[in-house]
Amino acid sequence: MPPRLSDDLKELIIQWYYVELKTMEEIRDLAHCSIGLVYNVICNYRDFGQVRKPTTSRAGRPCTLTDTYGIYTKKTCHANLSTESQMVLLDKIRFYAQDYPCSS
Q1: pLDDT, tens only, 8-52
Q2: What SUPFAM superfamilies does this protein's entry cite (predicted)?
Q3: Core-most of 40, 48, 53, 92, by most CB within 10 Å?
């Protein structure tokens, strides 16, 4: 399954369609996605006024990492580590966090 399109790209799809008056085929080529997805984004915007359908729920298990963990990690780094050590630790956290993506 291809990666999910970001809301920013979906907003661009709306701008291309309504402001720049591009066809769905042109938008498909610009966004590198299927024409069906372009159609669904435009329909969601037309029907609900937003690019994401509000009646659907998020798939998958809930994210276990929250903003609290990020704030705690940053405060701990700043309090206990040198700048170089902070960067190394945060790079390691980012690397391992890729295995556990959290999407909203």
Answers
A1: 999 999 999 999 999 999 999 999 999 999 999 999 999 999 988
A2: Homeodomain-like (SSF46689)
A3: 40
Q: What tokens does 90 get?
A: 């945060």
Is the pLDDT reported for residue 100 higher than 70?
Answer: no
Domain boundaries, the chain: 7-48, 60-104
Radius of gyration for the chain, computed over Cα atoms and rounded to the nearest angstrom: 19
Residues 51-73: b if buried by 16+ CB within 10 A, e if exposed: beeeeeeeeeeeeeeeeeeeeee
| In contact, 69 and 100? CB cutoff 8 Å | no
User: Hunting for tokens 């940053």 — which residue is that?
Assistant: 74
